[in-house]
Design a protein that fits this description.
This protein is an alpha/beta fold and about 240 residues long. The protein is built from 8 helices and 9 strands. β8 (about 210-220) and β9 form a beta hairpin.
């Protein structure tokens, strides 16, 4: 990480006419290439030999450096999670790409996100679906993310502070649900709020140990199927 930060600062110093935003844009393109390579390497586990072009396009448009603390901005386009305060992290970009791709978002969809964090995943989804509803249990993070998303112009994202375990019943059902913290089981309220034909992506497993990223699919008759995708490690889902 220190080498990456030093390289970023040296690039700015060596090219004084080059704006920081241009450097970030170049770094974002390099990150996308790394995400594609990681997707190819994990295809045997995930069943996704390549990510949908629209998912990669959405990632390319989101300025990840605006979703991390100022001290972490030189590291924003490393393909790794970063701390955002309050014991939480912004997810690894490859994992954001994978979870978004597994959701199979469509332009008319309404998606529920559990665990707003910095707002990065919500911003990626905002470029793909009609509406994103996002819940964050940690009040300071919820406030910061809501302001950040509004300042950056993500008008189709609604974020609020709430216990995501319970979902958002008054706004249900949802075409897709994405959970960005690990639960020790799949919350029944979230399954109930998923539309028939909908998908949920959620990490499941014990706190601070390896979990499994799980794809939940609700058939049109209401029956539910689950499939383990990949070992992951997320911060724990708090709440009920």
């Amino acid at each position: 990480m220190k080498r990456a930060a030093a390289a970023f600062l040296l690039l700015l110093a060596a090219q004084p006419g080059l704006a920081a935003e241009d450097v970030f844009a170049a770094a974002r393109q390099e990150l996308l290439a790394e995400i594609v390579a990681d997707g190819n390497m994990t295809a045997a586990f995930t069943g996704r030999p390549r990510f949908a072009p629209m998912v990669l396009e959405a990632l390319a448009k989101v300025p990840r450096h605006r979703f991390v603390p100022a001290v972490a901005r030189p590291f924003a386009y490393l393909n790794r999670p970063l701390p955002i305060g309050h014991g939480q992290t912004i997810s690894q970009p490859y994992i954001v790409a994978l979870m978004t791709d597994l959701l199979e978002p469509e332009a008319g969809h309404t998606v529920l996100e559990v665990g707003t964090g910095s707002g990065y995943q919500a911003a990626v989804l905002a470029g793909l679906v009609a509406r994103v509803l996002s819940l964050e249990i940690i009040a300071p993070l919820a406030r910061q993310a809501k302001k950040r998303l509004a300042d950056l112009g993500y008008a189709n994202v609604t974020a609020r502070q709430a216990d995501g375990y319970e979902g958002w019943p008054e706004m249900a059902p949802f075409d897709g649900i994405i959970v960005t913290a690990a639960a020790d089981h799949i919350p029944p309220p979230l399954v109930a709020q998923l539309k028939p034909g909908g998908r949920m992506v959620i990490p499941v497993g014990p706190r601070f140990l390896t979990q499994q990223l799980v794809l939940v699919e609700k058939d049109t008759d209401g029956s539910v199927r689950t499939r383990q995708i990949l070992p992951v490690r997320f911060v724990p889902l708090t709440g009920r």
